[in-house]
Amino acid sequence: MALVKIKIDGKELEAEEGKTILKVAQANGIEIPTLCDHAALLPFGGCRLCVVQAGPGALKPACATPIASNMEVVTDSSEIREARMMVLQLLFGERNHYCMVCESTGQCELQDLGYKLGLDHFEFFPYEKRFSEDVTHPYILVDQNRCILCRRCVRACADVGGHWVLGVKNRGYESLIDIDMDAPFNDSSCTSCGLCVQVCPTGALVDKRASYLGRKDQADLILSRCDRCPVGCGLEVYRRSNYILKIYGDWNCPTNGGVTCRLSRYAPLYDERPRLSTPKLKEAGVWTPASAEKTARWMAGKLINAEVVVEGSLSNEDLAALKSLFGERVFSLQDVAPPLPATAKLQDLADADTYLVIGVDLNREYGTVGSLIKRRTIPGTAKLILVDDGFNSLAASTDFVFSMEDLDSALAEARKGRKVVIVYSHLRETVAEALRAESQFLRLFLPYESNTLGLAQAGIGPHIAADSERTVFFVGENLRDLKSRVRGATLVALTPFETDEVKAADLIVPIPAVFESEGSFISMDGELLRKERILEPGEGVRSVSAWVALVEAQRLQSVVAKGKQGGSQ
Amino acid sequence: MLPGAIMHVAGSYHAAGGNREGLIVVVGLGSCGIAAGGQKVRSALIEAIERRALPIQLRETGCVGMCYREVLVDVFDPQGKRFTYGNVTPERVERLATDHFESGRPVREWLVRSSEESLADDSFFAKQKRIVLRNCGIIDPESLAEYRARDGYQALEKALRRMQPEEVIQAVRDSGLRGRGGAGFPTGLKWQFARGAKGEKKYLICNGDEGDPGAFMDRSVLEGDPHTVIEGMLIAAYGIGADEGYLYVRAEYPLAVRRLRKAIADATMAGFLGEHIMGSMLTARGSEFSFQLHVKEGAGAFVCGEETALMASIEGQRGMPRLRPPFPATSGLWGKPTNINNVETYANIPWILLHGPQAFADLGTEKSKGSKVFALAGKIARGGLVEVPMGITIGEVIYEIGGGIKDGRAFKAVQMGGPSGGCIPASLADTMIDYESVTQTGAIMGSGGMVVLDETACMVEIARFFLDFTQKESCGKCTFCRIGTKRMLEILTRITQGQGQEGDIELLYDLADKVKTSSLCGLGQTAPNPVLTTLRYFREEYEAHIREKRCPAHYCRKLLVYRIDSDLCTGCTACARACPTQAISGVVKQPHLIDQARCIQCGSCVAKCRFDAVKTQ
C-alpha cells in the first residue's frame, strides 16, 4: 500500500493508505476514545464513540474510516465532545450501569470513559428493565444488565476463537447476547476458552473465580508460557500477593495471538486435588511425615538399580537433573516418537485450504490449534475433514466426518485441496501407513505432552514395565496405576498432589504444581519456551531439581561416610 | 394505455389460447385481488360459464393497480375491446354472465375502465406511464408464453446476440436510470463498478425485501410479472459478468415467492436460465453465458432491505449492516464482487434495451429519468399501484390519478419514502417527483410508498408511528440508532400523551441530528426523517401538544376533552353503561353529563353513542 500524507489535529503524518484513522492515530500517540474497537478484532463501527471530523460533512467513526490522501482529521472539538457525551449518556442510561455494585468497577472501560469525558449526571432516566443473568457456566458469569452490546465477545468468539458460540438475538434495544441459540451457557458448545471474558469492556462477562478478589491494576502482570500442552501459548498471568487473579491469552505472542483454551485459563485454577505439602513415608503401613533430610537420605539409599519414569510435562532443567542422578535410566510414561514425522508448523494452518484432523478432539485438547483451524473452516474459507471413531465434538462444525474404516474416502476428499495439513497425535499403525503414502500433504504432529519433544531430544524413551525387583521413581502430576508398571518393587512418587493413586507408592515427595515451577520446554514447533514461576510453593515443597540436589548431597555424604569407615578399618 | 396495446394483449391472449371466437375473461389475482375475494369470484365465474356452456376462456392476472376497485374482472372480446369491471362480487357474476357474456351488452354501471372511451372514466390511467408495470394486470404471471407474446426475453436476446457487455452497461448509463430502491444511485455506474471489480466469481442480487409499511410496489411486480425481473437480472448479469444470483424476497410474500419459483423453473426449461443460456437460439457467444438464480426468502427484518445486511442474511448470518468500504461491488456476497439492485430497477431494464436508452431518457427531468412506481395508500379516494413519469407533481398524483382525498376531507400531507422518508405538506403539492426535489423537502423518494394524510391526522402521532417502527427494527448495532431512536420515541410518546415538556423539541432535534449523522447504515441515517419533517412543517402542532396540551387534529386521545351535546343526547344511557370509570351520569331520557375529573379519555362513549352526541375538543 502506498504511503499518503494526512493531518491529524494539525500534525502532519505519513501512513499507509487504507489504514483506519484510529489505527494511524494510535500509532502516532494520538488518543481517540473507543469502546467497541479492540486491537485484536476487526473494526466494527458500532458504538460511535470514536467519531472524528474527517473532511466536510458528518462526523465519521475513526475505527471504520480509512485514511485518504490529504485527509484532515480533527479528533477533538466541541461538536465531537458533544457527540461522544451523547453516546455515553445513551449507554449509561440503557441498562444497569451503577458502578458501585459492579464487579468490574475500577477495571471497566465504560466507567473509565465516563470519568475521562466528564460524565457527571444521567441525561436520560435509566431504564429499569431487568435482563437475565446466566450463571450456569462453571467459569464464566454472564450479566446482560451490564452489557453495552459492543459485540466484542461475539466477534472474539467467532473471528478469533473460531467457536461461533455467542451471537445476538432480538432487535433494537432488546438485543441480547445469545448463547448457541438460547441455550444455557453450560449446555452450550462453549469450549471455555475465555476469550469473551478477556475482551468484555464492562462487567457483562466475568470470570467467576476472580470476582471480588481484586482488580487487574492491583495485580502483577507476568508474561509466561502455558505448559499444559505442547502448543505453548503465551499467557498474561495476573498475580495478587500469592494467588492468581486471572489468566489471559497474550495478544502479542506469535504462537497463539491471544487465543488460549480451557486448559490454560481455567482448568489449573480449578484443580481441587489435595496438595501434598510434606514428604510422607509409609512405615509399617502408616503414612508418616518425614523431614527433607530423611526423605533425601531414604531416596539416596534406593538409587542402586533404580530407574525413574517421568511425565512429558517435566521441564528440560528437571530432566537434566534427573539424568545426572539416574544416567540412562530415565524413561517416559508416554510414547515419545511421532507415528509419522512432522513436516508442518503451526503457521502452516494460517493459509491451508484443507485440514484433515485424525482422532483428536481439538475442542478439548490442543484448543488453540482448534481455534486456528475452526476460525477458517466455519466461515467456509477452508475445509475441515474429520476422521474419528466415537464422539468428537469437532463433528458438529463440519460436514466431512469419516470413520477410521472409511479413511480412504476422507483422503479422497482431502486430495481436492491445494494445501492440505494433516493434524494428528496418536495413530494406529494402519492409519499411519495410509497417511505416509500421501506425501503431498503437510503433517502437523501434536506431541502427546507439553515437553514430549524435550524428552525426545534428551534421548528419553518410553518405559517398559519391569519384572525384576527394583526401585522405581515416578515424577509427575497425574500419576496413576503405578503398581501395574512394576512388580514387587519399591515405589517413590514425586508429585504435587496427594491422591489415592499415588498412595500406592512407599514414599511420596511434594514437588511444585503448575504455577509454582519454572523452566523451559520444547514446543510442538520445536521452539525452546520458558515458563515463569508465578506462585511460591509451600514450605515443604521442593522442585525436582532441588530434590535431586538434596539426594545427591546425601549420596555424597554416605560415600564420604563409607570412605571414612573404610579408612578407619 | 392505448387501444392498440390492448389489441396486442388480446391478440396475444388469442394467440396463446388458440381461441379466436369467444370472450376472454381475466380475474385479477394478485394478493390484493385474492384478499378482496378474487378466488370466490373466480369460482363463481367458472360455475356461471360452465352452466351456460359458453366458449369463454377464463384466465388470471396480477395486480392492475386499481386496488380501490378490487375484485377486478377484465373481459376481452375477439375484436380486442376491453371491458374492466370493478368491485366484482360472486353475486354480481350472474348478471355479468347473462348481460355481457351471453348477450354482449356490457354492464355499464359496473365498468371502471374500457377501451371504449365513452363507457368509463380513464383518469386513473391517463397520466400514468407504465414501463415497469407494462404487463401487470394484463398477462397471466404464471405463463411464460404470455410474457413472450409481450416481447418477453427479446431484450435478453438482443443483448446476447448483438451487444457486448460494455454496450449493455453503456445503454443503461445512457438511459439515466437510477436505483429505484430509494437512494437513487445511477444504475449503470453501479454495474460498471461491479464489472470492473477484480474476481472471477461475481454475484447478482435482486432486493425484494420490501419492508416499508404501506408499500407494495415490488410485491405487485413480482406477483404480476415475475419474468420481467428475471430478464432484467439476466441482462445485468451478462453486463457485469455474474454467473449466479439471488432473488431476496420477503417470506411474507408467499404468492410472489411461488410465482417466482414457477417463473424460474419455466425460464430454465425454456433455456433462458441455467447453463448456456439461449444456446440453441444464438451464436456461440451467447451460449457462453450461464446464470443460476436462487430465491432466498427473508425472515422478516426491515434492516435486511439494507444491502450489506441483506447479504449477511443470504450468507446465513444475522442480518446486520457491515462497514463500507469495501462496497459490495468489490467485496459483497461471500467476499465476491456483487451487484445489488431492487426489483423495480431490474424491471426497467428489458424495456430500456428494447426501446433504446433515449426513449427512457426522454421521460422525466434532467437528473431523474424514466418513470416511478408508487403505492398510493392512506386517505386517498383511489388507492392503488401507479406508475408515473418522473417530473409529475405530487398534486397531480394525488388529485388527478388518486382522485383526491377520501370522503371529501382536506389534504394535509403526504408521507413519502416510508419510515425513512418524511411528510411533505399540502403547501408543497407542486413539488416535482424527482430525486432532488423530493430530497429538498426533507423526505426521500424512497422505494415508492406514498401515504396520504388528511386533516384528521396528528403529525406528532404520525412521526411517533414511523419512529416506533424503525426503533423496533433497528438491528441494535449502533448506539444512536439502538437507544437514540428509543429515547426519541419516548419523547414523542409523552408529547402525544400530554406529558410534553419545554425543551423536548430541542432535545428531539439534538438526538435526531446525532442519530442521522452517526449511524452506520441507511436505517439509522434516515430514521429521524419523519420527526424532522413534521417538526419542520408542523412545528405548531408539537407546540400545541406541549404548551396547550391540545391536539389540533383531535387525534391524541389523552389530550381530548369529551363532552355530551345536550341537544343531541337522547338519554339512552348507552354511554354511561359503557364508561369504565363511571364518569357519565344522567337520568334516562335526559341529557347525560361527563365528569371530567373521572374521564380517562378512553373513547368508549363515542364508540357506543348512536346519536353522535359525544363531541371531542
Secondary-structure blueprint:
The complex is a heterodimer of chains A (569) and B (617).
Chain A: E1 3-8, E2 11-16, H1 21-27, E3 51-54, E4 60-61, E5 72-74, H2 78-92, H3 109-117, E6 133-134, E7 140-143, H4 152-160, E8 166-169, E9 176-179, H5 195-199, E10 205-207, E11 220-225, E12 234-240, E13 243-249, H6 262-265, E14 280-283, E15 286-289, H7 292-300, E16 307-310, H8 316-326, E17 330-332, E18 354-358, H9 367-377, E19 383-387, E20 400-402, H10 407-414, E21 420-424, H11 429-436, E22 442-445, H12 452-457, E23 461-462, E24 471-475, E25 490-495, E26 507-510, E27 519-522, E28 528-531, H13 544-568
Parallel strand pairs in A: 1-5, 16-17, 16-24, 17-23, 18-19, 18-21, 19-20, 21-22, 24-25, 25-26
Antiparallel strand pairs in A: 1-2, 3-4, 3-5, 6-7, 7-10, 8-9, 11-12, 12-13, 14-15, 14-26, 27-28
Helix pairs in contact in A: 2-3, 7-13, 8-13
Chain B: H1 3-17, E1 24-28, H2 31-35, H3 38-52, E2 57-61, E3 73-76, E4 82-85, H4 90-102, E5 111-114, H5 123-126, H6 144-149, H7 154-162, H8 165-175, H9 187-196, E6 203-208, H10 217-224, H11 226-240, E7 244-250, H12 254-269, H13 284-287, E8 292-298, H14 307-314, E9 338-342, H15 343-355, H16 357-361, E10 371-378, E11 384-389, H17 394-401, E12 411-416, E13 422-425, H18 435-440, E14 449-454, H19 459-473, H20 479-496, H21 504-518, H22 522-526, H23 529-547, E15 562-564, H24 574-578, E16 584-585, E17 593-594, H25 604-608, E18 614-616
Parallel strand pairs in B: 1-2, 6-7, 6-9, 7-8, 10-14
Antiparallel strand pairs in B: 1-3, 3-4, 4-5, 10-11, 12-13, 12-14, 15-18, 16-17
Helix pairs in contact in B: 3-4, 7-11, 7-15, 8-9, 8-11, 10-11, 10-12, 11-15, 19-20, 19-23, 20-21, 21-23
Identify the notable features of this structure and list them briefly:
heterodimer, A: 569 residues, alpha/beta, Ubiquitin-like (UB roll), Alpha-Beta Plaits, Rossmann fold, 4 domains, 8-stranded mixed sheet, 5-stranded mixed sheet, 13 helices, 28 strands, B: 617 residues, Glutaredoxin, 5 domains, globular
